[in-house]
Amino acid sequence: MRIPCPYCGVRGLDEFAYLGDATLIRPDPAAPGAEAAFHDYVYLRDNPAGLHRELWQHASGCQSWLVVTRDTRTHAIGRVEVARDVAAARGSGAE
């Protein structure tokens, strides 16, 4: 698999480190039911077949954190975004 880094260009998978699901949102620890919400956040994960957004770091390159949209059936990369931009859009409600 080859991942197109927005800063370095297309690179091999061996340059990247996988963190996990990029769609998860950390629960509010002050919210009612926070303990159960954190249990689900930490332990319960989907195993999707198809397009999935994942968090990767270009560990052996520019060190950027990226949100990669990948088809889990074929490993085809559909989109790569800088994680900072995704987080900013999420904070502004644009996503």
Q: Just name the CATH architecture.
A: 2-Layer Sandwich
The number of helical runs is: 2
**Shape label:** globular
Fold-level CATH name: Folate-binding fold
N- to C-terminal distance: 27 Å
Percentage of residues in DSSP E strands = 25-35%
The ordered string of helix (H) and strand (E) elements is EEEHEEEH
Helix content: 10-25%
Level-1 CATH class name: Alpha Beta
- Find the CATH superfamily: Folate-binding superfamily
Low-pLDDT segments: none
Task: Please indicate the count of domains.
Answer: 1
Structural class: alpha+beta
- What integer is the average pLDDT? 92
Give the spatial strand order of the biggest sheet: 3-4-5-6
**Radius of gyration, whole Å:** 15 Å
Describe the biggest sheet? 4 strands, antiparallel
Question: What's the number of extended β-strand segments?
Answer: 6
Features:
two-stranded antiparallel sheet, Sarcosine oxidase subunit delta, Folate-binding fold, four-stranded antiparallel sheet, SoxD, single chain, alpha+beta, 21% helix, SoxD_sf, sarcosine oxidase activity, 95 residues
Walk me through the structure.
GO terms for molecular function: sarcosine oxidase activity. This is Sarcosine oxidase subunit delta. 21% of the residues lie in helices and 35% in strands. 7% of the residues are buried. A four-stranded antiparallel sheet has the order 3-4-5-6. The chain has a two-stranded antiparallel sheet with strand order 1-2. It has one domain: Folate-binding superfamily (Folate-binding fold, 2-Layer Sandwich). The protein is α+β, with helices and mostly antiparallel strands. The model has no long low-confidence stretch (mean pLDDT 92).
